[in-house]
Amino acid sequence: MRFYTAEINNKEEILLAFSEGGTVYRLQRLARLAPELQLRDMQELIENFDAVREILNRLAANDDVLQGAVVNLADVKLCAPIVRPRQDVICLGINYEAHAREAGHFSDEAFGGERPYTIYFSKRVNRATACGEAVPAYAGLVDSLDYECELGVVLGRDCKGVTAEEAREYIFGYTIINDISARNLQTRHKQWYLGKSLDGFTPMGPCIVTADEIGDEQKLDISCTVNGQLRQSSNTSCMIQTVCGAISELSQGITLQAGTIIATGTPAGVGMGMKPPVFLRHGDEIVCRIEKIGSLVNTVD
Predict the structure, then answer these.
(1) Domain boundaries, position 142
(2) What is the DSSP string of 108-123?
(3) What is the pLDDT of residues 194-216, one digit of tens each?
(4) What's the angle, vertex CA 7, arms to CA 258 and CA 257, rounded to 5?
(5) Could you give the C-alpha distances from 76 to 7, 16, 40, 126, 165, in angstroms and in order?
(6) Is 300 helix (H, G, I), strand (E, B) or coil?
(7) Domain boundary among 54, 79, 104
(8) pLDDT of 219-229, one tens digit each?
(9) What is the rounded CA–CA span in Å between residue 162 and residue 209?
(10) Residue 250: C-alpha distances to residues 40, 111, 142, 164 (Å)
(11) Rounded CA gap, 176 and 181, in Å?
Protein backbone atom coordinates (compact mmCIF):
# COMPACT_ATOMS: atom_id res chain seq x y z
CA MET A 1 0.00 0.00 0.00
CA ARG A 2 1.00 3.60 -0.56
CA PHE A 3 -0.13 6.44 1.70
CA TYR A 4 -0.14 10.16 0.90
CA THR A 5 -1.11 13.25 2.84
CA ALA A 6 -2.92 15.93 0.86
CA GLU A 7 -4.68 19.19 1.58
CA ILE A 8 -8.31 19.10 0.44
CA ASN A 9 -10.70 21.95 1.24
CA ASN A 10 -8.05 23.45 3.55
CA LYS A 11 -7.81 20.26 5.61
CA GLU A 12 -5.16 17.56 5.62
CA GLU A 13 -6.36 14.11 4.58
CA ILE A 14 -4.79 10.69 4.14
CA LEU A 15 -4.93 9.19 0.66
CA LEU A 16 -4.40 5.53 -0.19
CA ALA A 17 -3.32 3.52 -3.23
CA PHE A 18 -3.23 -0.25 -3.03
CA SER A 19 -0.31 -0.56 -5.45
CA GLU A 20 2.20 1.45 -7.47
CA GLY A 21 0.39 3.33 -10.21
CA GLY A 22 -2.97 2.28 -8.78
CA THR A 23 -6.11 4.35 -8.20
CA VAL A 24 -5.89 6.73 -5.24
CA TYR A 25 -8.67 6.92 -2.63
CA ARG A 26 -9.61 9.31 0.17
CA LEU A 27 -9.47 7.48 3.47
CA GLN A 28 -11.99 9.92 4.93
CA ARG A 29 -14.60 8.75 2.40
CA LEU A 30 -13.91 5.09 3.18
CA ALA A 31 -14.38 5.87 6.87
CA ARG A 32 -18.10 6.31 6.24
CA LEU A 33 -18.31 2.52 6.05
CA ALA A 34 -15.57 1.74 8.56
CA PRO A 35 -15.35 4.17 11.50
CA GLU A 36 -11.94 2.75 12.40
CA LEU A 37 -10.58 4.64 9.37
CA GLN A 38 -11.45 8.02 10.89
CA LEU A 39 -7.82 8.90 11.51
CA ARG A 40 -6.54 12.41 12.16
CA ASP A 41 -3.18 12.10 10.44
CA MET A 42 -0.46 9.75 9.25
CA GLN A 43 0.92 9.32 12.76
CA GLU A 44 -2.40 7.93 13.96
CA LEU A 45 -2.58 5.66 10.91
CA ILE A 46 0.88 4.28 11.65
CA GLU A 47 0.04 3.61 15.29
CA ASN A 48 -3.15 1.73 14.35
CA PHE A 49 -2.02 0.10 11.13
CA ASP A 50 -2.40 -3.53 12.22
CA ALA A 51 -6.15 -3.04 12.62
CA VAL A 52 -6.47 -0.65 9.68
CA ARG A 53 -4.71 -3.02 7.28
CA GLU A 54 -7.34 -5.75 7.78
CA ILE A 55 -10.17 -3.31 7.11
CA LEU A 56 -8.52 -1.92 4.00
CA ASN A 57 -7.88 -5.38 2.62
CA ARG A 58 -11.60 -6.15 2.96
CA LEU A 59 -12.60 -2.90 1.27
CA ALA A 60 -10.15 -3.49 -1.58
CA ALA A 61 -12.46 -6.17 -2.98
CA ASN A 62 -15.52 -3.88 -3.01
CA ASP A 63 -15.37 -1.78 -6.19
CA ASP A 64 -18.69 -0.07 -5.49
CA VAL A 65 -17.43 1.26 -2.17
CA LEU A 66 -14.07 2.33 -3.57
CA GLN A 67 -15.50 4.29 -6.51
CA GLY A 68 -17.05 6.83 -4.16
CA ALA A 69 -13.64 7.63 -2.68
CA VAL A 70 -11.55 8.07 -5.85
CA VAL A 71 -9.38 11.20 -6.08
CA ASN A 72 -6.97 12.44 -8.72
CA LEU A 73 -3.58 13.40 -7.26
CA ALA A 74 -3.31 16.17 -9.84
CA ASP A 75 -6.41 17.81 -8.34
CA VAL A 76 -5.14 18.06 -4.76
CA LYS A 77 -2.30 19.83 -2.98
CA LEU A 78 0.18 17.17 -1.93
CA CYS A 79 1.84 17.48 1.48
CA ALA A 80 4.77 15.56 2.90
CA PRO A 81 3.42 12.19 4.06
CA ILE A 82 4.27 13.05 7.69
CA VAL A 83 3.81 16.80 7.75
CA ARG A 84 4.96 17.47 11.33
CA PRO A 85 7.10 14.66 12.71
CA ARG A 86 6.75 14.06 16.43
CA GLN A 87 10.51 14.03 16.90
CA ASP A 88 13.62 15.09 15.04
CA VAL A 89 14.55 12.89 12.09
CA ILE A 90 17.42 10.51 12.95
CA CYS A 91 20.09 10.62 10.24
CA LEU A 92 23.02 8.43 9.30
CA GLY A 93 26.08 10.35 8.17
CA ILE A 94 28.71 9.23 5.64
CA ASN A 95 26.91 5.92 5.05
CA TYR A 96 28.13 5.25 1.49
CA GLU A 97 31.87 4.74 1.00
CA ALA A 98 32.08 6.81 -2.20
CA HIS A 99 30.32 9.72 -0.47
CA ALA A 100 32.77 9.43 2.42
CA ARG A 101 35.64 9.99 0.00
CA GLU A 102 34.08 13.00 -1.73
CA ALA A 103 33.10 14.59 1.60
CA GLY A 104 36.65 14.18 2.90
CA HIS A 105 38.03 15.90 -0.20
CA PHE A 106 35.69 18.87 0.38
CA SER A 107 36.63 19.27 4.06
CA ASP A 108 38.95 16.81 5.76
CA GLU A 109 38.46 18.63 9.07
CA ALA A 110 34.68 18.22 8.96
CA PHE A 111 34.34 14.87 7.21
CA GLY A 112 37.71 13.11 7.22
CA GLY A 113 39.31 10.62 9.60
CA GLU A 114 38.61 7.08 10.67
CA ARG A 115 34.96 6.05 11.13
CA PRO A 116 34.90 2.67 12.88
CA TYR A 117 31.32 3.29 14.06
CA THR A 118 28.18 4.60 12.38
CA ILE A 119 27.68 8.38 12.53
CA TYR A 120 24.25 9.41 13.84
CA PHE A 121 22.86 12.92 14.10
CA SER A 122 19.43 14.52 14.21
CA LYS A 123 17.66 16.97 11.94
CA ARG A 124 15.01 19.37 13.24
CA VAL A 125 11.82 19.33 11.17
CA ASN A 126 9.07 21.74 12.20
CA ARG A 127 7.24 21.03 8.95
CA ALA A 128 8.42 18.68 6.24
CA THR A 129 8.51 20.08 2.69
CA ALA A 130 6.19 18.42 0.18
CA CYS A 131 6.96 17.11 -3.27
CA GLY A 132 6.47 20.11 -5.56
CA GLU A 133 7.18 22.71 -2.88
CA ALA A 134 10.17 25.06 -2.95
CA VAL A 135 13.31 24.79 -0.87
CA PRO A 136 14.38 28.18 0.56
CA ALA A 137 17.85 29.36 -0.46
CA TYR A 138 18.45 31.67 2.55
CA ALA A 139 20.48 34.24 0.62
CA GLY A 140 22.90 36.01 2.94
CA LEU A 141 22.93 33.09 5.38
CA VAL A 142 23.70 30.11 3.13
CA ASP A 143 26.29 30.23 0.36
CA SER A 144 26.61 26.48 -0.30
CA LEU A 145 23.18 24.87 -0.57
CA ASP A 146 23.39 21.16 -1.31
CA TYR A 147 21.14 18.15 -1.94
CA GLU A 148 21.29 14.58 -0.57
CA CYS A 149 18.90 11.90 -1.85
CA GLU A 150 18.21 9.36 0.89
CA LEU A 151 16.01 6.38 1.66
CA GLY A 152 13.72 7.30 4.55
CA VAL A 153 12.52 4.60 6.96
CA VAL A 154 9.35 5.00 9.02
CA LEU A 155 8.90 2.78 12.06
CA GLY A 156 5.47 1.30 12.70
CA ARG A 157 5.88 0.08 16.29
CA ASP A 158 7.81 1.11 19.37
CA CYS A 159 11.03 -0.86 19.63
CA LYS A 160 13.78 -1.20 22.22
CA GLY A 161 16.66 -3.66 22.27
CA VAL A 162 15.82 -5.42 18.99
CA THR A 163 18.27 -7.44 16.94
CA ALA A 164 19.05 -6.73 13.30
CA GLU A 165 17.12 -9.90 12.43
CA GLU A 166 14.04 -8.60 14.27
CA ALA A 167 14.28 -4.99 13.09
CA ARG A 168 12.37 -5.40 9.82
CA GLU A 169 9.25 -6.40 11.78
CA TYR A 170 9.16 -2.85 13.20
CA ILE A 171 9.23 -1.00 9.86
CA PHE A 172 5.99 0.54 8.66
CA GLY A 173 7.30 1.72 5.33
CA TYR A 174 9.71 3.78 3.28
CA THR A 175 9.80 7.23 1.70
CA ILE A 176 12.27 9.55 -0.02
CA ILE A 177 14.07 12.28 1.90
CA ASN A 178 16.20 15.06 0.43
CA ASP A 179 18.58 15.97 3.26
CA ILE A 180 19.12 19.58 2.17
CA SER A 181 22.33 20.93 3.69
CA ALA A 182 23.95 24.33 4.14
CA ARG A 183 27.58 23.29 3.85
CA ASN A 184 28.97 26.58 5.21
CA LEU A 185 26.92 26.24 8.40
CA GLN A 186 27.55 22.50 8.65
CA THR A 187 31.34 22.86 8.50
CA ARG A 188 31.57 26.14 10.43
CA HIS A 189 29.84 24.79 13.51
CA LYS A 190 31.85 21.53 13.55
CA GLN A 191 28.61 19.58 13.84
CA TRP A 192 25.74 19.10 11.46
CA TYR A 193 22.55 20.03 13.31
CA LEU A 194 22.24 23.69 12.34
CA GLY A 195 23.37 23.27 8.74
CA LYS A 196 20.71 20.64 8.11
CA SER A 197 17.81 21.93 10.22
CA LEU A 198 16.74 25.24 8.70
CA ASP A 199 13.04 25.50 7.94
CA GLY A 200 12.25 23.86 4.61
CA PHE A 201 15.37 21.68 4.59
CA THR A 202 13.53 18.34 4.76
CA PRO A 203 11.66 17.57 1.53
CA MET A 204 9.91 14.21 2.00
CA GLY A 205 7.59 12.11 -0.12
CA PRO A 206 5.75 11.81 -2.33
CA CYS A 207 4.29 8.99 -0.23
CA ILE A 208 5.09 6.23 2.24
CA VAL A 209 5.21 2.77 0.69
CA THR A 210 4.54 -0.04 3.14
CA ALA A 211 7.39 -2.43 3.83
CA ASP A 212 5.68 -5.45 2.25
CA GLU A 213 5.55 -3.65 -1.12
CA ILE A 214 9.25 -2.75 -1.01
CA GLY A 215 10.67 -6.16 -0.16
CA ASP A 216 14.45 -6.01 0.29
CA GLU A 217 15.27 -2.41 1.15
CA GLN A 218 18.95 -3.07 0.50
CA LYS A 219 18.41 -3.64 -3.22
CA LEU A 220 16.90 -0.33 -4.38
CA ASP A 221 18.32 1.94 -7.08
CA ILE A 222 18.71 5.50 -5.80
CA SER A 223 19.46 8.59 -7.90
CA CYS A 224 19.25 12.36 -8.07
CA THR A 225 19.21 14.83 -10.95
CA VAL A 226 19.61 18.60 -10.88
CA ASN A 227 18.07 20.40 -13.86
CA GLY A 228 17.97 17.05 -15.66
CA GLN A 229 21.68 16.33 -15.10
CA LEU A 230 22.35 13.02 -13.33
CA ARG A 231 24.33 13.74 -10.17
CA GLN A 232 23.78 10.71 -7.92
CA SER A 233 23.34 7.11 -9.06
CA SER A 234 23.80 4.17 -6.71
CA ASN A 235 21.99 1.35 -4.95
CA THR A 236 21.07 0.91 -1.30
CA SER A 237 23.17 -2.26 -1.32
CA CYS A 238 26.16 0.13 -1.11
CA MET A 239 25.23 1.36 2.36
CA ILE A 240 27.92 0.84 5.00
CA GLN A 241 25.39 0.43 7.82
CA THR A 242 22.21 -1.36 6.77
CA VAL A 243 18.69 -0.22 7.62
CA CYS A 244 18.12 -3.10 10.02
CA GLY A 245 21.58 -2.72 11.50
CA ALA A 246 20.91 0.94 12.26
CA ILE A 247 17.53 0.22 13.87
CA SER A 248 19.09 -2.47 16.03
CA GLU A 249 22.05 -0.32 17.08
CA LEU A 250 19.92 2.71 17.90
CA SER A 251 17.37 0.64 19.82
CA GLN A 252 19.92 -0.79 22.24
CA GLY A 253 19.74 2.39 24.31
CA ILE A 254 16.87 4.39 22.80
CA THR A 255 13.17 3.59 22.66
CA LEU A 256 12.33 4.23 19.01
CA GLN A 257 8.67 5.19 18.89
CA ALA A 258 6.15 4.41 16.18
CA GLY A 259 6.42 7.14 13.57
CA THR A 260 10.17 7.59 14.04
CA ILE A 261 11.80 8.65 10.75
CA ILE A 262 15.33 7.53 9.91
CA ALA A 263 17.24 9.02 6.95
CA THR A 264 19.79 6.40 5.95
CA GLY A 265 22.51 8.48 4.26
CA THR A 266 23.27 9.60 0.74
CA PRO A 267 25.46 8.18 -2.04
CA ALA A 268 28.22 10.05 -3.86
CA GLY A 269 27.42 12.84 -6.29
CA VAL A 270 26.43 15.75 -4.04
CA GLY A 271 27.35 19.29 -5.01
CA MET A 272 30.26 19.61 -2.60
CA GLY A 273 31.82 16.49 -4.16
CA MET A 274 32.13 18.03 -7.64
CA LYS A 275 35.41 19.61 -8.80
CA PRO A 276 34.98 22.47 -8.31
CA PRO A 277 31.93 22.22 -6.00
CA VAL A 278 28.63 23.15 -7.63
CA PHE A 279 25.92 24.25 -5.22
CA LEU A 280 22.21 24.83 -5.72
CA ARG A 281 20.92 28.15 -7.00
CA HIS A 282 17.57 29.86 -7.36
CA GLY A 283 15.37 28.03 -9.86
CA ASP A 284 17.25 24.71 -9.79
CA GLU A 285 15.05 21.61 -9.94
CA ILE A 286 16.10 18.61 -7.84
CA VAL A 287 14.56 15.21 -8.56
CA CYS A 288 15.31 12.42 -6.09
CA ARG A 289 14.27 8.93 -7.23
CA ILE A 290 14.21 5.62 -5.40
CA GLU A 291 13.11 2.38 -6.99
CA LYS A 292 9.62 1.18 -5.97
CA ILE A 293 8.85 4.50 -4.25
CA GLY A 294 8.86 7.15 -6.98
CA SER A 295 10.22 10.67 -7.37
CA LEU A 296 10.50 13.60 -5.00
CA VAL A 297 10.66 16.87 -6.94
CA ASN A 298 11.56 20.28 -5.52
CA THR A 299 12.88 23.60 -6.79
CA VAL A 300 15.08 26.16 -5.08
CA ASP A 301 13.29 29.39 -4.24
Answers:
(1) 89-300
(2) HHHH-S---S-EEEEE
(3) 999 999 999 999 999 999 999 99
(4) 5
(5) 6, 13, 18, 22, 40
(6) strand
(7) 79
(8) 999 999 999 99
(9) 23
(10) 29, 22, 31, 11
(11) 16
